[in-house]
Amino acid sequence: MRIFALALAGAILGATGAQATGDALVIGNSRYTAVQTLFGAQRVTVAADALREKGFDVSLAQDADAAGMRRAFAEFAAMLDDDGGPVVILLSGAFVHGVGGSYLVPVTGSGRIDEAEVLVQGFPLDAALSILSAYQGRAFLVLGETPTDPDLGLFLSEGLGELDIPQGVTVIRGPAVDVARYAARDLARTGRFVLRAALDYELEVEGYAPHTQVIVRAEDVTGPRDPSEPGRSDPAAFTRAADEAAWRLAQEADSPDGYRAYLDGFPDGQNANAARQRLNALNSEPFYRERRAEEALELTREQRRGIQRALSILGYDTRGIDGIFGDGTRGAIRRWQEDSGLRVTSYLSRDQIVRLQDQSARRAAELEREAEKRRLEREREERAYWRQVERRGEEAGFRDYLQKYPEGQFAEEARRVLQEIDDRRAEQAAGQDRRDWAKAAQANTTSAYRTYLQDWPNGAFRAEAQQRIALLEHDASKVRDAVAARQEEQAMNLNFVARQLAERRLDQLGLKPGKVDGRFDENTRAAIRRYQDSRGLRVSGYLDEQTVVRLLADGIIGLDRD
């Protein structure tokens, strides 16, 4: 009965707190499968409670189908007024996007994401943005993405995609786990700077985002409600308030004991059916305690990335190093637990994280030893090759060396020798040959060099022309590869700390990345290329998942071991 007593106290005390004016729509969808997603709809409802306590009028839908989302949106639209307060729409769940916009996926009985159903029954973000556009400067769209593995086809893609944000609207977005924490703890805090909070919770802010922006301003908050107001002595109103407070506490606890305590106090309460449904779901969830134990660790996004890196370096594919524990990561955890002789749950305890970290550190050290062995062997091979080139002293040999080792130990020496050969050839060449070559070299295109070779098939600069054609064609291919590699690096959204860690690791390995400042310049790119080449990775000069996993392997789940 403790929860009942707390609820009554909350109902009494909550009625006297400072109030703010504002309107909010909160939709939290998470139960797309039989097991509720980590930090799903149950956590988002805590944010709704926090907003209510600040005096917001809140329309709430939890694990809603299409009709439930429409009802909540209609209720929200009907209660909007122009009182000058903030207008907040908080959506958490699975999102998909297509040509026509982005959609919050409804919860269906089958749990399957069907494209056609989403297109006609999903909650369109354009509707939310249309409403918010009327409240410029005080309109907030908060989006928490739940990891899913939808079976999509031609019309839709996974995720939010790019949003067409109206002027004066602020969009805050990130993984549902981080958005839920922010929403429950800081969204309704008076005077909390949006950009500072987003940085603390590793969220992205788009659209209207001045540095001093807050959601609940001090001037929005009014004084305590007068205890003599009508309704305070109404027993029915008091019972309803106590019921609602007890229900909020049960949701916040989200445990069998919490829901049983609510039902003990309010067996016929307005949320009794929902409490019984949730109690049945928890009792049927096979690894409820393990899920809650992992939630209690409150892993940061960087710690979750560290876990994904540790799994990846051990050979368990997480399908991304993004700090979001979706089906790929859960599957990797299950396989690791099975191979490690642990109980297979797909959720991690503190001890298991420490064990995983130790295993990955040992594997990283093994890989480094193997890489050092390969590096020394490659250096021996390169030195032997160079000795042969020097002994023969032939132009073709120097050119072959540069093609094989473009950033080798003796690359500069090879280029110097070839330049001397070219200079001597230029002095000896016929005047017209030399002029045609100078023209081709100035244009520096494959067509210009091919024209030279057609005109001078046995010209003095034939070998140089052929090599430059090969280099230009190779460079064109490298440019295409570099564009793809750069996009892959950008998609990883490496933060400043991760970039500094990468530079520091390159510096420790003696690869000369330049200044360790979190900014990747040409020195850094060259160091990354040398690292990738020495480890047998795809050489691009840009960080991809495999390079990051190897490079940061010693870094960094960052969970205290005590």
From TrEMBL:
Keywords: Signal
Keyword Ribonucleoprotein: no
Signal peptide (residue range): 1-20
Occurrences of domain Peptidoglycan binding-like (ranges): 301-351, 499-551
Pfam families: Peptidase_C14 (PF00656), PG_binding_1 (PF01471)
Domain Peptidase C14 caspase: 24-93
GO-annotated molecular function: cysteine-type endopeptidase activity
SUPFAM superfamilies: Caspase-like, PGBD-like
Biological-process GO terms, alphabetical: proteolysis
Gene3D superfamilies on file: 3.40.50.1460, PGBD-like superfamily/PGBD
InterPro entries in the cross-refs: Caspase-like_dom_sf, Pept_C14_caspase, Peptidoglycan-bd-like, PGBD-like_sf, PGBDSf
Record protein name field: Peptidoglycan-binding protein
